[in-house]
UniProtKB/TrEMBL annotation:
InterPro entries: RNA_pol_sigma_54, RNA_pol_sigma_54_core-bd, RNA_pol_sigma_54_DNA-bd, RpoN_core-bd_sf
Similarity comment text for this entry: Belongs to the sigma-54 factor family.
PANTHER family: RNA POLYMERASE SIGMA-54 FACTOR
Keywords tagged on the record: DNA-binding, DNA-directed RNA polymerase, Nucleotidyltransferase, Sigma factor, Transcription, Transcription regulation, Transferase
Gene3D superfamilies named in the record: Homeodomain-like, RNA polymerase sigma-54 factor, core-binding domain
Pfam family, one: Sigma54_AID
Segments forming a coiled coil: none
Protein name, as recorded: RNA polymerase sigma-54 factor
Domain RNA polymerase sigma factor 54 core-binding: 108-295
Presence of the UniProt keyword Cytoplasm in the record: no
Domain annotation RNA polymerase sigma factor 54 DNA-binding: ranges: 308-467
Length: 469
């Protein structure tokens, strides 16, 4: 059979992701702060985009300018020496220099003090102590192998090979570092960390030392009665030892951890007004865009190449404005649909959250599920019961005896409430929690499902929650 080249005509349809469509999809899944950055970047790059200022903003800016000029005049001409009288601690010349605002020219970041790191805090102490240059070089390798809790993640042999030192030198330096602030940092095990702190504090009771060396796992699992029998202690005497151990810090490096709280700016506000709910999009700081008339007028006399560039930028600006409007409109429709489906939640709270899936909202607003998924990503809504991510309102269902369903998040909230109000000396088991849910809600939930929900909320088992004192 011979090979030959042949031409064929074929008609087919396919979806082409144009740059404009990609941009519209990207805008859907951006958070509010990311959206602000994107719009500001487009304002800088596209000459056809312009920010619209309202009359109120123009009026406010002129008033602020007048006030700032008046404040500068007051600082320049005020007789602060006579005003302060005997409480003045500076001369008139120094006051004049202060009025020059020495912070002018400094960046905002330069005026802020950074949070000290664990490595920097220990390095500072070593340089103020009698550490030699060679010892500081070895110690810096040790500090570089500490985790966020302050524990050493490398062995002495590994450190010795990295710095070409003996094992005795590394051990000696490690012992000195462990006695810096915070005490116990650089330990390899929780036992070593606690024993170092006990040594520094002078806690050398043999029973206390044995509890830390050999029985930390028993203490973690609340095995108090066997310990009391072994050391021939009453439960009250054992409690005194436990109270003493509670004063120690098994994770000395956490105070220097770089983990910062995550602040959320809600994209939507939902307010209750009588029996209805009002939905307001958070557009604070979001520029109002318009086409720049100057560049549009200059297109008329432009050359062909310039006109082609202008037309491309003009289409890009118009598409961005249209995409922003579509994003805000979609977000409003999705939140409006969620409020309809989860009305009882917005009235009574999380225990009334109903099961909901993306498909139900998509059918309600006549959009595709992928669009609903994108618009609910990294978006937050402020409700009468707190701030929640939009994904929170979509949860699985559990069947009730009467044939209806209840949302899994509602069940989680009830489990959390029951555990918060339990008797700590007789905590509720997972099986007992399932029985209570069966009696109160008539919900069919297995013990393993209760255990799964409890673990997802970070709540320990009943044996670990039990308190003997």
């Amino acid at each position: 059979m011979g090979l030959e080249l042949r031409q064929q005509l074929k008609l087919s349809q396919q979806l082409v992701m144009t740059p404009q469509l990609q941009q519209a999809i990207k805008l859907l899944q951006l958070s509010r702060l990311e959206l602000l950055e994107t719009v500001q970047q487009e304002l800088m790059e596209n000459p056809f985009l312009d920010e619209l200022e309202t009359e109120a903003e123009v009026h406010d800016s002129s008033e602020k300018l007048t006030e700032s000029q008046a404040e500068e005049e007051l600082v320049r001409n005020a007789d602060w020496e006579n005003y302060l009288g005997e409480f003045s601690s500076t001369s008139k010349q120094a006051t004049a220099r202060d009025a020059e605002v020495p912070e002018d020219g400094l960046s905002f970041e330069a005026r802020l003090a950074s949070k000290p790191s664990l490595e920097g805090h220990l390095n500072w102490q070593m340089r103020l102590s009698n550490f030699t240059d060679q010892e500081i070089a070895i110690s810096e390798i040790i500090l570089g192998n500490l985790d966020t809790n302050g524990y050493l993640q490398a062995s002495v042999d590994e450190i010795r090979l990295m710095v070409q030192a003996s094992a005795e030198e590394v051990e000696d330096l490690l012992m000195r570092i462990q006695r810096l602030d915070p005490v116990g940092v650089g330990a390899r095990t929780p036992q070593e960390c606690l024993l170092v702190q006990m040594e520094v504090l002078g806690l050398d009771d043999p029973i206390l030392v044995s509890l830390v060396k050999d029985h930390l796992e028993d203490l973690e699992k609340n095995r108090y009665k066997p310990l009391a029998r072994k050391f021939k202690l009453s439960m009250d005497e054992l409690k005194e030892y436990l109270d003493l151990l509670q004063t120690l810090d098994p994770m000395p490096g956490t105070n220097f951890s770089s983990n910062e709280p995550h602040y959320v700016s809600p994209d939507v506000y939902v307010y209750r007004y009588g029996e209805d709910f009002v939905i307001i999009l958070n557009e604070d700081g979001l520029p109002r865009l318009q086409m720049n008339t100057f560049y549009m007028d200059s297109m008329k006399g432009a050359a062909d190449k310039e006109k082609e560039y202008f037309q491309e930028k003009m289409r890009s600006a118009a598409w961005l404005m249209k995409s922003l409007y579509q994003r805000q409109r979609t977000l409003y429709k999705v939140v409006e649909s969620i409020v309809r489906f989860q009305r009882e939640f917005f009235i009574d709270g999380v225990t009334k959250l109903k099961p909901l899936i993306l498909k139900e909202v998509a059918e309600d607003i006549e959009m595709h599920e992928s669009t609903v998924s994108r618009i609910t990503t990294n978006k937050y809504v402020s409700t009468p019961h707190g701030i929640y991510e939009l994904k929170f309102f979509f949860n699985s269902a559990l069947d009730l005896d009467d044939g209806s369903q209840v949302g899994s998040e509602s069940v989680k909230a009830l489990i959390k409430q029951m555990i918060a109000g339990e008797d700590t000396k007789k905590p509720l088991s997972d099986e007992r929690i399932g029985e209570i849910l069966k009696d109160k809600l008539e919900v069919n939930i297995a013990r393993r499902t209760v255990a799964k929900y409890r673990s997802a909320m970070g709540i320990p088992s009943s044996s670990k929650r039990k308190q003997y004192f």
